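Quick look at the format.
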Amino acid sequence: ALTPASNLSRKVSASLAARSAVDSRQESINAAITAQLAAKKIDYSKLTKEQQQNVYVDVVVQMSAAPASTNGSLISQYSSTAQIQEETRKVIAAQDSIKKAVQKITGQTASESYGYVVNGFATKAKVRDLEAIKKVAGVKSVTVNTVYYPSEANANSMANVQSVWSAYKYKGEGTVVSVIDTGIDPNHKDMRLSSE
């Protein structure tokens, strides 16, 4: 039988666990913001609290509605490229009212729209506006983009890219690279933008 003391203890434990999860999520968001700004040579920790709240960051806004790959509009084994593109276009078109609501908050338009694997769009937002965007009807999550850096120090020399850099004066700065093969599984855990 539960005693009042043990019941209180369980409530306190649950409350602490919930607070820990929120703190962990906030640390992850702060790390992503710090990395984005560091890539622009801005030290987030040296900004005032007001400056930290007013800085723009790149985010992906994910919709509550399912993307074309999982909303039942396509037969995965038999859909043609044209059908996939059409259903993806429909998903993106349905984002319009949410994009407008987010634009009213941020003053920014969507830079990219996604509809096949993820139903969402990319935009810029001030840190202070992230919570307001999450409250827009139809928004599932707002994810601050993660900055990635190469982990293989020898890859450039192995691929002999220095000669290309010398010959063409182009190193690919600002280029977004994505590798998607025909074996994509939109339900795989690594294809989720957030844990929400």
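Next, a different chain entirely:
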Amino acid sequence: LSPHAKRLMFSSWKGWSDVDYYYDDLTDADSTLRPLYTDMEAITTLIMLDDRFFIFTNLDAPRYRLFSATYDRPERENWVEVIPQRESILEEVDVIGGRLVTKSLRHASSVLEMFTLTGEPIHELPTPDLGTIYGPYGEYDGGELFFYFTSFNEPGTIYRYDFAGDSTEVWARIDAGVDVSNLEVKQVWYPSKDGT
């Protein structure tokens, strides 16, 4: 369902990498199901807004990328690339606070980034260390987002990012009963036997 309940989306899965998406315009009483994304074998998720939708896919991009399209011109030739495939693996995309918020895997560590809805980079959200992020979570027009972070030296912690103040704070933390203040997490690089 789109944010203001104007459009309803349906998906039909035919295996783990073959999905068709259809939508219905709820503002039109005579509307019928119309195809949005069909007959393309790729792992794909659609993110609906009222005026457009985003296509998060590995179609011709094994590390994933993001497109946008409009409901009146959903065909592949009308897609606009918003975030191209990059060196990092794009793992999640959502619209939070009127921005695109992405989670990527860069050198085995999670990274959160913000973009405008047209794909212009805003900034990377700081994380306490190298580690794994679950999320982000938030409302498409909200003023905050949440993410769960864990690492070798940090028990599971939920962080809250405030859009207005551009600040991140601890929202909730697991008390592991262990002092980890003297632990350090570092990532080091060495050449492999084949020189890579």
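The chain has a mean pLDDT of 93.

See the schema section for token definitions.
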